[in-house]
Amino acid sequence: MDLNALNVFITLYRAGSTQRAAKQLGRSQSFVSKVLAQLREELSDPLFIRTANGLHPTSYADKIAPKIQSSIEQINLALEPEYFDPKNLQYITVHLGEPLMVMMGKELINAIRAETDAVIELRQWRKSSNDGLIDGSIDVGIQSLRERPQQLYQKKVASGYGSLVGNKNGEFIKLIVEDLNEYVELYRTVDDKLNPTIIVDNYSVQRQLLAENYSYQFKLESDDTHKDIAVDLAVICSAARRHEAKITWLSELCQKVMLKSIANS
To answer: Are strands 198-200 and 173-175 parallel, antiparallel or unpaired?
Structure first.
């Protein structure tokens, strides 16, 4: 049994399907299935049971997965070169919460491209982004600092606030940010009589409507500005990967671009 086979096992364990595991590994689905068959024979256990929701690990797989994951991390750490060069990266995936995608998306892509020719996948943050960070299909995310799965590491990088902007003679607009305020009315902490009559989930549309209406807009914390609604932002990654050179480099780059972009918005 080699290290590559164990890495396939852990990827399968996290992904829950041979198709997703193959995509994350950059290999064919038939390759993953072949390795799984070999592992089943060597370990004398089916390891995963096929269900309507994907591959479900057996009790034995649940037992050995944490130990194998820990061993792989130690080996990778020992083998990781002391010198890190982003030019050697092949693929980078970042998820940003709304409205950060509009505020810093272009600048982040330019900053990454200045250091590497890797494929850049930049997507809007969804609830499923938490799972993607855990299984390794997403490198880094930026979203509000809040309670999240223990497998994730969050580093607070900015404190911000929301203040009313726009034409207060118009209608009040609520900007929905997924995994933040779908079911929470944050503005009620300031004015419990506020009721949105326009609800959007796109920052660009919200800004277009501000000439005739009003809403809350995010800005970085400032000592001389009244903070109506406090929001803390965090760079988020897998706790198991937080010390990887790639994650450290990308997290620092995201933080730098984010602070600059929001300050200029």
So the answer is: parallel
Residues 6+ apart with CB under 8 A from 190: 228, 229
C-alpha distances out from residue 102 to 39, 108, 227, Å:
45, 11, 22
Question: So what's the pLDDT on residue 236?
Answer: 96
**pLDDT at position 223, please?**
46
User: If we measure between CA atoms, which residue out of 132, 164, 120 comes closest to residue 257?
Assistant: 120
Residue 158, SS3?
strand
Nearest Cα to 179, choosing from 101, 102, 124?
A: 124
Record the tokens describing residue 231, joined without a space. 């929001």
State the DSSP H helix or E strand holding residue 29, giving kind and residue range, or none if neither.
Answer: helix 29-43
For 200-232, give the DSSP string: ES-HHHHHHHTTTSEEEEEEE--TTS--SEEEE
Give the helix/strand (H/E) hosting 56.
Answer: strand 54-57
Strands 229-238 and 48-51: unpaired
Judge residue 175's burial from the number of C-beta atoms within 10 Å of its C-beta, 0-12 exposed, 13-18 middle, 19 or more buried. buried
| pLDDT band at residue 97 under the 50/70/90 scheme | confident
The predicted-structure confidence for 143-190, as pLDDT tens digits, reads as follows: 988 889 888 999 998 877 777 889 989 999 988 888 777 666 766 666
Is residue 119 classed exposed, middle or buried when 0-12, 13-18 and 19+ CB atoms within 10 A define those classes? exposed
Q: What is the residue type of 29?
A: Q
Contact 103, 122 (CB under 8 A): no
Rounded to whole angstroms, how far apart are CA atoms 206 and 66? 45
Q: What CA–CA distance (Å, rounded) separates 113 from 116?
A: 5
DSSP-based three-state secondary structure for 161:
strand
